[in-house]
Amino acid sequence: MTKIALDTDVLRACLQPVEGVSTHLAVTELVELGATLWVLPAVLETISEEGNDWRGRWRELPLYEQPLDAFLNGCAAGIARRYLDYHPDPRDCRVVAEAECAKMDAFVTLSKDLISGLGRRVENIRIEEPRDAVASCIRRRTDQ
After folding, report:
1. How many Å apart are CA 123 and CA 121, to the nearest integer?
2. Could you tell me the residue ranges of all domains in the chain?
3. Under a CB-based contact definition with an 8 Å cutoff, are residues 98 and 40 in contact?
4. End-to-end Cα spacing for the chain
């Protein structure tokens, strides 16, 4: 089963599908293809900082919460520092590092800057837009 972490922008589009219809449809298709979708600690922190009702609403979707434990925290801190050499946003570096340390298969985002900055630097995950993640899942299914 493919484990996919969602960035804040993708989660937002899922919760407000009128503004992000294609993203919402792609995420729905990922679930139909058997992927498990995860919300990382850094994404939850961003949601909490925004002060809206996301914290409760995202739990209505078929998503899993990745808990923050000592291993994930230490692992992500070290990798995020290294990623700052390639991408200027510390929050982006942290959330990608969390995805990698949590053994996700992919990190799905709408940020082209993040994809171009870290997409070729990460070692154990893919950083993709939602539609590309769907294509990857389809390819994986046909390759099996």
Report:
1. 6
2. 3-143
3. yes
4. 12
**CA-based nearest residue to 36, from 106, 97, 114:** 106
Query: Which residue has tokens 């294609």?
Result: 22
Q: Residue 24: name the closest of 63, 69, 72 by CA.
A: 63
Residues of the chain with pLDDT under 50: none
Which tokens sit at 138?
């389809």
Pairwise CA distance, residues 143 & 130, whole Å: 20
Tokens of 56: 């409760």
Q: Is 40:102 a contact under the CB 8 Å cutoff? A: yes
- Name the E strands within 2-141: 3-6, 36-39, 63-65, 106-108, 126-128
Q: Which residue has the tokens 């389809």?
A: 138
Can you tell me the distance from the alpha carbon of 65 to that of 55, in angstroms, rounded to the nearest whole number? 11
Task: Supply 60's token pair.
Answer: 């209505």
Residue 59: predicted pLDDT: 81
| pTM of the full structure | 0.91
The CATH T-level fold of domain 3-143 is: Rossmann fold (3.40.50)
